[in-house]
Structures are given as C-alpha cells and as structure tokens.
Amino acid sequence: MLPTDPRILWSVQLRLECKAVNDTGRIVRVPGDNPDGIATCSVVRFVDGDQVVFCEDADDDLIARTSLLEPGLFFLDTELAAQTVAGGRPTAVGCFHTYVFPETERQHPDVVRTGAEEYACVVDGRAVSWASSARSNSDAAELWVRTDPAFQRQGHGRRVAHAWAAEVMSAGKVAFYSHLHGNDASRRLAAQLGVVHVFDVATITLDGSADR
Known about the structure:
alpha+beta; single chain
C-alpha cells in the first residue's frame, strides 16, 4: 500500500531528490541518479504544523536567526525571511507546493505511450502534450508535463498526466506533482488533475551552498 502520511511522503520525495534527514536532523546527500541541490534552510508545512531543517554545514548564527522567526513568515514573505536568516549574505529562495495522485483515470484514446513513464497526447497525428518523469526511483516519480500553447486548456495535459500516473502507481510507486508558488498555470493544472495537496516547502539557500 502506498504511504499517505505527509511526513513519510516528504521523506520519499527527499530520497527522490537524493537527499535524506540524518540522525541529527540535518538534510544530507544520499546516492541516486538525479540529485537536487540541498537548501541551507528548509521549512516544511504540513497540515498539522511546520518543520524546520538545515543542511549539514549550516552555521550556528544562521540557526539562531531562524529560531527568532515564526515559521509561517517563510511562506508569507520568503524574501523577508531570507534577509533575516542570512544576515545580509546573498541568498536564493523558493516556495513549492507538492501533491500526490490518489487515483487515475482510464487512459484516453488520444494518449500513447512513448517510453518508460513517458506519454504523449496526439491530435490529428500531431503530439500536442507530453508527460514523463522529471525524476524516478524505485519508490516514487515526479511528473513533468508540457502542452503546446496552441492546445492548452483543452484537457490534453490532464490526460497525459493521468496516463503517466497510472503507470507509476501500477509499479507500486508514489506519483508526485510539484510546482513553484508563483506558477499559476501549474496551480490550475493541479486543480484539474484532482491531485491531493500533502505539503509545502520554503527554502533559503546561501549563494554557492546548494551544489553538494
């Protein structure tokens, strides 16, 4: 059975990004095929509360500054939180929303499988929308989806995404979908897909410290 606890799902997504929380509560690199950068500070918002975690080499001053802030500020004003935490040092910030597919639809006749965890929606002999795994391992995969601008808002992205999710879930894996906070098109697609929101992550990365 696939996990449903948001905290377990977060750990599954971390492993998909080649990361894990170690015994001291720090995020560290673990082996994998598609590593993502490790933020200096991450705040994870679950429905029942927030969790603040740091990279392995976050300094005491940064941790002390972070402890002075309400975790909610990281989501209300990530830039202001970053200025406070970093103490004037250059930073990069991000805020992401993450969902999982709870179920899938029957594959639409216009959708064809083009590879492992890879689908296209074909209209009049032309591929107009594509879905594949941005990352994939034995436990989970994360959706990448794109639709030709001339064919957007016609349901094609939803169809290929559900075909992709069906394959991922049939393999006993979690099917994730994530997007940046400011990406309105991806937010609309999430609503159309019927995916379940599980957590949000706000990240602050001191310049030059993400490539570990």
